[in-house]
Amino acid sequence: METFKVGADDFLEMFDCGPGGLPPDFFAVLARMDTRHRDANNKELEEYVLALLKKINSPEIFRAKEENHDAWEKGWKENLDALSPGNKTADALKPRYYRGSKFLRYKNKLIVTDNINLEHDLFVLMRIILFRKYLLKFDDVYEFGCGSCQNLLMLSEMFPEKSLHGFDWARPSMGIIETLAGKFGKKVDGRFLDMLNPDPSTTLKPGAAIITIHALEQIGKDHGKLISFLLNSKPGIVVHCEPILEFYDPNNLLDYLAITYTEKRNYLSGFLTALLELEKQGRIEILEKRRPYLGGVVHEASLIVWRPV
User: Fold this and answer.
1) 284: which DSSP letter?
2) Which domain holds residue 128?
3) Nearest to 113 by CA among 105, 104, 122, 121
4) Which helix (H) or strand (E) holds 35?
5) Fewer CB under 10 Å: which end of the chain, C or N?
6) Torsion of Cα atoms, 292 then 297 then 298 then 299, to 10°
């Protein structure tokens, strides 16, 4: 069966990088990665679908808010414990939910790869593009749901002059930020924030950049307070890289499975619809809404970029 590679041209198409093209550091990172893959055959597709259906129908698929909080406390504590002078920091902060798989959703189909870390590798390349494209001109960047702080670390290495701020509801995330600032000298600070119920006394520098990356899943339909908080913070730009239910096609097998999985887990839904309504009201401008078809094992993140009017 024919083998392909994910290359620079694919990313140009996925993210419409425009006249400036791809940043130089993108090519340096791409050169170190094995992006070879092939289309799944019928037997492999059956294997994938069966495993996912079993997962969807598992009684453990639904978690209450308290269970979610406990899970992230435990998960980010593992990343905090992994931070040490002898451990490569980027590896220490890689979320443990990247377990590795031969399967990946890509360009609206299922692919198979020998590089079981391909999902995370492509995620690294995607962030280089998004950070260079949207955050370059902002002095302050706030990440909501910073989790393991891998994005803050990457931003600190790409833009050491920027002031970075991480918000999360898990205590280990604050410990990671303290370690990055203290032991590693990164220009980063952090604060507790429950995105389901943001404290209105929490203030941001007006005109700053706000990002959320794989952080809003657990909010489900309860994103109204967060959106209001973001609006009231008067940011210069808001960049979301999140699974967006509205982009899925229910007549496509992989998308239908992703929709079912999302609904069973009570993951983010109605988010794009809410932002479109705000745009209709003249309260925000949506600069970009894009599905790059750069997937994960079960579902995939899309891009929404907006700013208050």
Assistant:
1) E
2) 4-308
3) 104
4) none
5) N
6) -10
Q: How far, in Å, CA of 173 to CA of 163, rounded?
A: 17
Q: What is the pTM of this model?
A: 0.95
Nearest to 36 by CA among 83, 67, 4, 79: 4
Kindly give the pairing relationship between strand 284-290 and strand 302-308. Answer: antiparallel
Query: Looking at the 3D structure of the chain, how many domains does it have?
Result: 1
- The HSE-up count of residue 181 (CA atoms within 13 Å, CB side) is 14
Which residue type sits at 169?
W
Per the structure block, which two tokens stand in for 171?
């205590």
Taking the C-alpha atoms of 28, 212, 69 and 87 in order, what is their torsion angle to the nearest 10 degrees? 20
Domain of 146: which CATH number?
Answer: 3.40.50.150
Q: Where are the beta strands (DSSP E) in the chain?
A: 4-5, 36-39, 103-106, 109-112, 140-144, 163-168, 188-192, 209-213, 237-242, 284-290, 302-308
Under the banding of pLDDT at 50, 70 and 90, the label for residue 70 is: confident
pLDDT in tens, 17-60: 876 789 999 999 999 999 999 999 999 999 999 999 999 999 88
Structure tokens at 183: 């032991």
